Amino acid sequence: MPYQITLLPGDGIGPEVTDAAITVLDATGVKIKWDRALAGQKAIDKHGHPLPEKTIQLLRKNQVAMKGPIGTPIAKGFSSVNVLMRKTLDLYASLRPVKSLKGALSRYQNIDLVVVRENTEDLYSGIEHQVAPGVVESIKIITEKASTRIAKFAFQHAKTEKRKKVTAIHKANIMKLSDGLFLDCAQRVSKAYPKVTYNEMIVDNACMQLVLKPEQFDILLLENLYGDILSDLCAGLVGGLGVVPGANIGLDTAIFEAVHGNAPDIAGKGLANPIAMILTAAMMLKYLGENKRAQAIERAVNEVTAAGEVLTPDLGGKAKTQDVAKAIAKLV
Ligand code: ATP
After folding, report:
1. How far apart are CA 329 and CA 145, in angstroms?
2. Closest-CA residue to 81 (of 143, 12, 136)
3. What number of CA atoms fall less than 13 Å from residue 274's CA on the CB side?
4. Catalytic annotation present for 204
5. C-beta separation of 235 from 273 below 8 A
6. Pocket test for ligand 1, best of 19, 229, 241 (most atoms within 8 A of CB)
7. Annotation marks residue 232 as catalytic
8. CB of 284 closer than 6 A to ligand 1?
9. Does 171 qualify as catalytic in the annotation?
10. Whose CA is nearest to atom 24 of ligand 1?
11. Which ligand 1 atom minimizes the distance to the CA of 72?
C-alpha cells in the first residue's frame, strides 16, 4: 500500500524545492500517493480563502503532509497561513534538527543540536489592536497547558533520541509572568526526566553563547518568537536556511516543512537550495517508520556536500536546484 500524503507545494521557491524532494523520495523506492492541496495566495485566487476547508480536510484525513513555504504579506494583507495551519491542526511542536553536513559549508563543524519551538501561542496569537492613534498593543499569550506540553515534547525527544540536555531559553528577568510561567512548566516537567540535564539561559546570552560555544547546547526549548529567531541563527551555524529541515507535529498530524521561508528574491530561478526540503523529506520518512530510507537520504546528502561539486550558490556552488536533487537521488 502506498502512503497517502498531502502535498502543499507552497509559493516562491516552494514548488521548486518540493519537486526536488520528490525526485529524491522517488529514488528511495518509497511508494507515495500525493494529494495536492492549495494554501496562501493561490488558494485565495481559486477558493477565496488562504486556507480553504478542502485543504484542512485533506490535512486531517492523511495526517502527514509535506509542505513548501507559503509567503505572508509584510505589515498588511492576510495573516500567516503557516501559523493558521499550525493553530487549526494544533501542531504544537516545531522540531528543527540543526546538524553540520560534511564539507566546508560554514564556519563551524560538528554542530548537532535540536530546536524545539512552541508553535501555537506567544506573540503569534495575532492579537494586536490600536489603543489610540500612534499607540498599538500586541499581546503575548503564554499558557500552562501549551508550555507544559512543549516541555514534555522536548524531554521526550531527548529520551527517545538519547540526547543529554534541554536548555530552556527565556527573558523571565523582564517578562516575569509570561516567561516565568514557561520556565515553571519546564522545571516541573524536567523532574520526570532525571537522566536529562536541564538548564536555563536568557535569550540574549543564548544568542551570544550559540555563536561562541555552540557545542554546549543539545536541545533548545523555546517559546514561539524566540524559537523563530533562534532557528535562523542556528541555521547560520551550519550553512544557512538552505540546509535545515523541520517538522510541525501535533498529537495525530504532522506537517513536514523546512525552516526557510518562500524566498521570493530567488524564486523561479533554480537558485534555491533543495537540501533543507530533502532532509525534511527524510524526517518525514523517519516519522513513517522508514528509517533505512531516511538514513539513505541523509548519507547521500552528506556525500554530495562533502564532494562539494554540485552545490547551489548559497553554499558557494553554481548548480541549479534540480542538479542538486539529481546528484543526491543518484546516491540514495
Ligand atoms: P519566513 O519568516 O517566512 O520564514 P524569512 O524572513 O526567514 O521567511 P526566507 O524566505 O527564509 O526569509 O529568506 C531569507 C533569506 O534566505 C533570503 O535571502 C533567501 O533567499 C535565503 N534562502 C531561504 N531559503 C533558501 C534556500 N532554500 N536556498 C537558498 N537561499 C535561501
Report:
1. 42
2. 12
3. 33
4. yes
5. no
6. 241
7. yes
8. no
9. yes
10. 260
11. 3
Do 51 and 39 form a contact (C-beta atoms < 8 A)? Answer: yes
Instruction: State if residue 320 touches ligand 1 by the CB under 6 angstroms criterion.
Output: no
Please state the length of the chain.
332
In short, whether 261's Cβ falls inside 6 Å of ligand 1 is yes
Rg (CA), the chain: 19
Q: Is 20 in the pocket of ligand 1 (CB under 6 A)?
A: no
Q: How many angstroms separate the CA atoms of 212 and 200, rounded? A: 17
314 lines ligand 1 (CB under 6 A): yes
CB 8 within 8 A of CB 34: no
Residue ranges of alpha helices (H) inside the chain are: 14-28, 41-47, 53-62, 81-88, 144-160, 178-190, 203-212, 224-237, 275-287, 291-307, 321-331
Nearest CA to ligand 1 atom 2: 261
Q: Are 328 and 315 in contact (CB under 8 A)?
A: no
pLDDT tens for the chain, 332 residues: list them: 999 999 999 999 999 999 999 999 999 999 999 999 999 888 988 888 899 999 999 999 999 999 999 988 777 777 788 888 998 999 999 999 999 999 988 999 999 999 999 999 999 888 899 999 999 999 999 999 999 999 999 999 999 999 999 999 999 999 999 999 999 999 999 999 999 999 999 999 999 999 999 999 999 999 999 999 999 999 999 999 999 999 999 999 999 999 999 999 999 999 999 999 999 999 999 999 999 999 999 999 999 999 999 999 999 999 999 999 999 999 99
Distance CA 99, CA 114 (A): 8
